[in-house]
């Protein structure tokens, strides 16, 4: 086990008051340190692992709090060291006080992520599982939660581990044949290796491709609200974010810049952007807003196109339809509480004229009202359907959400492609092994088997305090 001092931190959020708050201590002296400040029926050093004791925390002779203390003995703990968790009342002031006397009695304040770093260094979890802990803590919707749990239960570790194993086996086979040609020969091996390379590139490509959806699951679908001025874009934005984040007025041209908020529904999150109303204008500032809104279309993953259904369509509406022709779009026929002039069929016809019937698969049209909330639940259903096609929710596909992991997968993919090139160009076999080992090492960086100390420090410093 990796040798370390005893660390302590407040492991519950510091942002607000809660019913309870936890001070966590980990290390060889964890139980001894806790015993110095805890008074109860038994000393903690005499209790069994995984037991909870009731007692009080003292600072010298001053009573600080009534607590429950859980003891986990090494190696059956999160860090594989002795761990003590003191459940206090949830005042931040009190928790800081308890932490300070824990530190006064021999522990050191933990760095962010240091508990999880120890779990990694002591071999309890691999790096992909450690990173999923961070994703799990920050997950804001069910898909993100499901994906990080699947990483945490070792799904990526297994996939990468199996792949590395196979690469190592083939490398060893080539090396053996080169070293000992009398006993091992490589006749007919090219075809076998070629099949293996195809299998590996398929697995890697699938993981690399999952990154786009993986990031979207974690960070939210980049969603642009577009429409003419005064059709109800800001009202919709406010309704969705549940507060007055954008200014709502009946003066056309009020939202001149872009307002962005992340909102989470139970299944998915949106990075929602409210934009300036699109119209031809001579106002210099408004023009900038319109230009900005239009420039965001390319990057958007989803467009919510708001139309005022109580008024005839105008040239600006047609122009927007032209510009979003390739985009997955939900059209909101807004103000459905007023008598309607625009029909769903009319919108469909225009889209079909502008971009052909194929585009209709990417478009949903919903009657909507920000006033009486007609269409709100259909909007969520349609986005889920349009974006994830009903697949993500039910599939067990593993999604890569981490930039670093994606980078290493790209590297491994390139190395395997180089092996294929060497094979096709009938290069000597030792050319294969160099690139195979490069792929093996890149993949090892994902699970943490092949990683420098500096990088470990960098990765864990991104964690939150107390984890
Ligand atoms: P934006 O310029 O597109 O952002 O439009 P706003 O959200 O500022 O709304 C313009 C006006 O339309 C305001 O007076 C809103 O109260 C009104 N409005 C927005 N949505 C609806 C709706 O669904 N029904 C009705 N009747 N009025 C709405």
Characterise this structure.
- There is one protein chain.
- The protein has 467 residues and is an alpha/beta fold.
- It folds into 3 domains: 7-125, Probable tRNA modification gtpase trme, domain 1 (Gyrase A, domain 2); 134-216 and 402-448, Four Helix Bundle (Hemerythrin (Met), subunit A), CATH 1.20.120; 220-388, Rossmann fold (3-Layer(aba) Sandwich), CATH 3.40.50.
- 46% of the residues lie in helices and 18% in strands.
- The chain contains 15 helices and 13 strands.
- The longest helix has 31 residues, at 189-219.
- The chain is flat, with a radius of gyration of 29 Å.
- Residues 244-251 have low confidence and may be disordered.
- Bound molecules: guanosine-5'-diphosphate (GDP).
- Residues 227, 229-235, 248-250, 254-255, 277, 334-335, 337-338, 369-371 line the site of guanosine-5'-diphosphate.
């Amino acid at each position: 086990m990796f040798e370390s001092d005893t660390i302590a931190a407040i492991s519950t959020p510091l942002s607000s008051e809660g019913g309870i708050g936890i001070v966590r201590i980990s290390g060889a002296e964890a139980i001894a340190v806790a015993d110095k400040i805890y008074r109860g029926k038994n000393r903690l050093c005499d209790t069994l692992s995984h037991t909870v004791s009731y007692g009080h925390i003292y600072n010298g002779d001053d009573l600080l709090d009534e607590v429950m203390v859980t003891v986990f003995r090494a190696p059956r703990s999160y860090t594989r060291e002795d761990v003590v968790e003191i459940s206090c009342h949830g005042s931040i002031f009190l928790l800081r006080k308890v932490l300070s006397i824990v530190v006064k009695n021999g522990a050191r304040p933990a760095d962010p992520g240091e508990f999880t770093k120890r779990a990694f260094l002591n071999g309890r979890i691999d790096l992909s599982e450690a990173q999923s802990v961070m994703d799990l803590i920050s997950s804001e919707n069910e898909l993100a939660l499901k994906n990080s749990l699947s990483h945490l239960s070792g799904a990526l570790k297994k996939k990468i581990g199996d792949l590395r194993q196979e690469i190592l086996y083939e490398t060893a086979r080539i090396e053996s044949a080169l070293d000992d040609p009398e006993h091992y020969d490589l006749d007919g091996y090219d075809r076998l290796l070629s099949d293996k390379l195809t299998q590996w590139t398929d697995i890697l490509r699938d993981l690399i491709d999952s990154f786009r959806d993986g990031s979207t699951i974690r960070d939210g679908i980049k969603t642009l609200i577009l429409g003419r001025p005064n059709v109800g874009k800001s009202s919709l934005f406010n309704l969705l974010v549940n507060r007055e984040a954008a200014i709502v007025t009946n003066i056309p041209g009020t939202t001149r810049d872009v307002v962005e908020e992340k909102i989470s529904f139970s299944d998915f999150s949106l990075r929602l952007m409210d934009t300036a109303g699109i119209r031809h204008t001579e106002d210099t500032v408004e023009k900038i807003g319109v230009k900005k809104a239009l420039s965001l279309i390319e990057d958007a993953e989803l467009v919510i196109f708001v139309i005022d259904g109580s008024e005839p369509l105008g040239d600006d509406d047609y122009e927007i339809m032209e510009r979003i022709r390739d985009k997955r779009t939900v059209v909101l026929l807004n103000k459905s509480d007023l008598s309607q002039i625009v029909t769903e069929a009319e919108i469909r016809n225009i889209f079909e004229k502008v971009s052909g019937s194929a585009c209709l698969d990417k478009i949903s049209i919903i009657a909507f009202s920000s006033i009486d909330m007609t269409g709100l639940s259909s909007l969520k259903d349609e986005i889920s359907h349009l974006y994830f096609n009903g697949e993500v929710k039910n599939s067990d596909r593993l999604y890569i959400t981490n930039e670093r992991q994606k980078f290493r997968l790209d590297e491994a993919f390139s190395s395997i492609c180089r092996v294929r090139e060497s094979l096709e160009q009938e290069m000597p076999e030792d050319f294969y092994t160099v690139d195979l080992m490069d792929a093996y090492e890149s993949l090892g960086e994902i699970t943490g088997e092949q990683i420098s100390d500096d990088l470990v420090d960098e990765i864990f410093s991104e964690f939150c305090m107390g984890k």
